[in-house]
């Protein structure tokens, strides 16, 4: 007789998120629905649901589940929102965002990662996600504005061209600090009066690099 209970590693995955303070039920549900094991390297699938970052192709990483959930929760997403993600990586964060918003544009500088993320997202039926090969730090002027922006690589300062694409009432979240070492997850909110800035928690991300990669 088969059981409807999720496997132990997925139960612990959800429990860890709750213990670490993730309380938004829609975020928890999205994290549960997206099969993280499809977004990691085949050699790391046994470790997919551990609360740790894992290496992926092109020297990049897939963020630890808590960081993905925390950043998503801090975005305060609603179903009508249009979201920009800088740094598609394996596509995992975009898949989570797709469950909570109307539309996601995710920009990736490595063709190999962009193509693989697009294939995974299509396979999962995330039809409201567009994966674009491009320079996330220097986007074309016709892209935007957005209700929410999430940067999933470290920036020494938040690029002004991203802030300018944020709608009034919008939220931008990014890891800010030195490329080598610890960054501070920072949230910007655009109000009628201007930009409000709040520093959240310390994190470690790979650096956000300019341009489209010539290889990979």
From TrEMBL:
Q: Which gene encodes it?
A: pcm
The Ribosomal RNA adenine methylase transferase N-terminal domain sits at 67-199
Annotated protein name in UniProt: Protein-L-isoaspartate O-methyltransferase
PANTHER family membership: PROTEIN-L-ISOASPARTATE O-METHYLTRANSFERASE, PROTEIN-L-ISOASPARTATE(D-ASPARTATE) O-METHYLTRANSFERASE
Q: What does this protein do?
A: Catalyzes the methyl esterification of L-isoaspartyl residues in peptides and proteins that result from spontaneous decomposition of normal L-aspartyl and L-asparaginyl residues. It plays a role in the repair and/or degradation of damaged proteins.
Family assignment from sequence similarity: Belongs to the methyltransferase superfamily. L-isoaspartyl/D-aspartyl protein methyltransferase family.
| Entry keyword annotation includes Mitochondrion | no
| Enzyme superclass (EC) | transferase
Question: Which compartments does it reside in?
Answer: Cytoplasm
Question: Which SUPFAM superfamilies does UniProt cross-reference here?
Answer: S-adenosyl-L-methionine-dependent methyltransferases
